[in-house]
C-alpha cells in the first residue's frame, strides 16, 4: 500500500480497461481520476495536476498524442509524468510519444497490469 496520497489520471475510452486500471490503482492506494477522451483528459490534467497520467492513444474527440502535445505546451504540463498504455503499436506513434517525453509506451496486449503498476510506482518513487 502507498503511504502518501498520489493521484493517477486514467485517460482511456474503453470502459473495461478503465475499470480494471481504476480498481487495481485504488487497491494499491492511489487516488484515481478518469477521462474518456483526450479533450477531457487535458482539461482534467491541467485543472487537477495528477502525479501521473496513464494515456491511451486511439480515443474520440482528441487522440492521446494530440493531448500529450497540448499538455507539453502548458508550464505544469511540460513536466507531467505520462505513461502511454495503448493497443496501437505504429512506430511513428511510439516515436512521437517518446519525443514528447512520455516516460514509457506499453502495448496493452503485451503487458500485465502488475507490470504497469510496477512502472507507475517506479516513476513516482513509491
SSE succession: EHEHEHEHEH
Largest sheet properties: 5 strands, parallel
Would you identify the CATH architecture?
3-Layer(aba) Sandwich
Runs with pLDDT <50, length 5+?
A: none
Determine the fraction of residues in helical runs and give it as a percent range: 40-55%
Q: What structural class is derived from the secondary structure elements?
A: alpha/beta
Can you describe this structure in just a few lines?
The chain is of the alpha/beta class. 43% of the residues lie in helices and 18% in strands.
Describe this structure in words.
Helices cover 43% and strands 18% of the residues. The chain has helices spanning 15-27, 38-48, 64-72, 91-99, 113-124; strands at residues 7-11, 31-35, 52-55, 82-86, 104-107. The chain has one domain (7-124): Response regulator (Rossmann fold), CATH 3.40.50.2300. The model has no long low-confidence stretch (mean pLDDT 87). The chain is globular and about 30 Å long. A five-stranded parallel beta sheet has the order 2-1-3-4-5, sandwiched between helices. α1 (15-27) links the parallel β1 (7-11) and β2 (31-35). The chain has 126 residues and is of the alpha/beta class.
Amino acid at each position: 500500500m502507498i503511504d502518501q496520497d498520489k493521484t493517477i489520471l486514467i485517460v482511456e475510452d474503453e470502459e473495461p480497461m478503465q475499470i480494471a486500471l481504476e480498481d487495481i490503482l485504488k487497491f494499491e492506494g492511489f487516488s484515481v481520476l478518469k477521462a474518456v477522451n483526450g479533450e477531457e483528459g487535458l482539461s482534467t490534467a491541467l485543472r487537477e495536476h495528477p502525479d501521473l497520467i496513464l494515456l491511451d492513444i486511439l480515443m474520440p474527440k482528441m487522440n492521446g498524442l494530440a493531448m500529450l502535445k497540448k499538455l507539453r505546451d502548458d508550464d505544469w504540463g511540460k513536466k507531467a509524468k505520462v505513461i502511454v498504455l495503448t493497443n496501437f503499436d505504429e512506430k511513428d506513434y511510439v516515436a512521437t510519444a517518446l519525443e514528447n517525453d512520455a516516460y514509457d509506451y506499453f502495448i496493452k496486449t503485451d503487458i500485465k497490469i502488475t507490470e504497469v503498476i510496477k512502472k507507475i510506482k517506479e516513476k513516482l518513487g513509491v
